[in-house]
Backbone:
């Protein structure tokens, strides 16, 4: 069977199975609407017993992968490779978090779309026969991300209503050749899309065009309609980006409002948690998928979904040099089996 589909997609001849998933989050995430679904919730200070935000984020990844391995009833030596990523410079949360597993690692950066990238590459490795077991893991931390991209927490800057709240959390999945109740049937790799937006505190607007581009290409490549998916789930567009996505998709002739769900909207309560437009960060899509979305597929409540984590490709250097904020979105087709 031909596996290359359309312009940007792959339909796997041997779909990779998702054997397990685990999620570790901070207290704010635990207090949100999805709190009861997470495997582990941290304490108020967000340090998880560590001395810095960055060390805490590394610990999140370590715990998420460890829990996922336990659920899959596997030992760390059975992993052929790990695909890991985060938001920090040189992906240090992943480097220090995964180091102790002594497993070959590919460090990834797709901003908040990184879990889609990690699942895509993991699925290719397993489906291609290059690995019997692979881990995909991403993380983010409110404290480390604010320090990396915006202002130190002690500065107390005002956040506009378009801003999203970086999720403190890590989600990990273990993929294998067989044995799971969910499988990755295909992927659509996203392109970098730049509409020239420069507002780093309105990332939903920056990422929505990329989400539209990837979702539209997936529908074209697989000759599908939105209703062929039980859900089309973006990563962290938030309230602002969701509205823009709906408008852009309608311009292309598709109405996805009935199928659409956004992890950034689901993870926090906008009315009680003061998170403005919603959640964001590499951990946002990862923990929502691991804790809430995957179980629904495994139970057969959803037969097929399109999981589309979205990312804003900026750094403090590009922002300070006045560059725009391009977006990217990585789509993963996940089916019940």
Residues:
């Amino acid at each position: 069977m031909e596996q290359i589909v359309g312009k940007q997609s792959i339909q796997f001849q041997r779909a990779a199975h998702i054997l397990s998933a685990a999620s570790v989050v901070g207290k704010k995430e635990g207090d949100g609407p999805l709190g009861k679904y997470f495997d582990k919730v941290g304490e108020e200070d967000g340090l998880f017993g560590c001395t810095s935000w960055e060390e805490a984020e590394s610990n999140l990844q370590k715990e998420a992968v460890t829990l996922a391995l336990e659920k899959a009833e596997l030992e760390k030596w059975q992993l052929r490779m790990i695909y890991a990523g985060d938001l920090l410079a040189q992906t240090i949360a992943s480097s220090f978090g995964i180091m102790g597993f002594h497993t070959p690692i590919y460090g990834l950066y797709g901003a908040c779309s990184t879990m889609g990238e990690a699942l895509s590459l993991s699925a290719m490795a397993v489906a291609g026969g290059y690995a019997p077991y692979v881990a995909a893991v991403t993380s983010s931390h409110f404290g480390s991300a604010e320090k990396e991209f915006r202002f130190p927490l002690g500065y107390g800057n005002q956040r506009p209503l378009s801003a999203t709240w970086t999720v403190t959390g890590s989600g990990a999945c273990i993929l294998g050749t067989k044995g799971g109740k969910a499988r990755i049937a295909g992927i659509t790799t996203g392109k970098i899309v730049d509409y020239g937006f420069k507002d780093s505190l309105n990332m939903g607007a920056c990422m929505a065009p990329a989400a539209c581009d990837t979702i539209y290409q997936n529908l074209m490549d697989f000759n599908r309609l939105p209703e062929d998916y039980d859900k089309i789930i973006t990563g962290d567009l938030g309230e602002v980006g969701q509205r823009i996505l709906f408008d852009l998709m309608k311009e292309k002739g598709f109405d996805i409002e009935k199928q659409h769900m956004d992890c950034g909207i689901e993870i926090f309560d906008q009315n009680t948690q003061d998170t403005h437009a919603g959640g964001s960060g590499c951990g946002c899509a990862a923990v929502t998928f691991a804790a809430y979305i995957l179980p629904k597929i495994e139970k057969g409540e959803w037969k097929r979904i399109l999981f589309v984590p979205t990312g804003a490709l900026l750094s403090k250097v590009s922002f300070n040099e006045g560059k725009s904020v391009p977006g990217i979105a990585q789509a993963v087709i996940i089916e019940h089996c």
